[in-house]
């Protein structure tokens, strides 16, 4: 009996030891960069499903080499009050691999960083929706601005094109510019050292607005009708826009989109949900037609580099090579309707592309070649994303 008792105790001890061992086994995130280039502004998304965790509120991410906690951002994507995802931007050397451990942290223990990725609805200026990071800023126009045009009220805007705000400082400017413009202190149409809004959109596609093409005619939606801010923070801002159904020569098109902009990137990500079309065209306004359209089908981008005020400006559309069909220059006499277009596939009612700009005066790009080098590198990154594995 004594031997059986000892065996039973030993068995319980072994089982307890195994249970403790399994319980204490850390969750390790392995990030791999397969490219021969450093990558420092790409965002890793860790969902609850990937992490196999229901509660992300007390989670931190520790670099196993430096033993330091990473800057992270937690996101509630669907607005139900529960965190769905953790974001972070690992600093990856060329052709390298890094490991990170999921750790439990107390309130206030995760490191903080300035919230440079910001967006908001702007009711004080009709109903713009505006977004920015430390490199660029943009805006789109809402239903009030559209109705003002339809009712012939001055100050409205009828356009589903995307406006570019040319900033040349890293800190946020949206709230400051609107406040100064609307109070009469100064105008964001003049550069007082931070940049300015002198990018004309009109009926054009601006920087990344879409069109449907039937035969030789392009058709557009009108202004957005609904909005929802998803997140702002140190790593990403994202938001949802919905559009009234629109017509393309008898075809009814349904459209909504989630737009995001990550820290350090000049291009916003457009994830558009569509019904009624199998392909779309994302466009770049040609303004005075005094610039140069260029593109690389094998890299999945089209660009327009142009003189702009006392400087120069590059705009671009870029998509994965599996989405990018081709590009074209569309040049017509009608004001604002000339655009450079990226022709993109719609798969399973969605299309994803990136659109943005580089302003020479900001000091980020000194030439057309610098801008195109950036697009080539961006193409490599979206076509060879960071590889992420989670163990156990």
From TrEMBL:
It comes from the Bacteria. This is DUF4861 domain-containing protein. Pfam families: DUF4861 (PF16153). It comes from Arenibacter arenosicollis. InterPro entries: DUF4861.
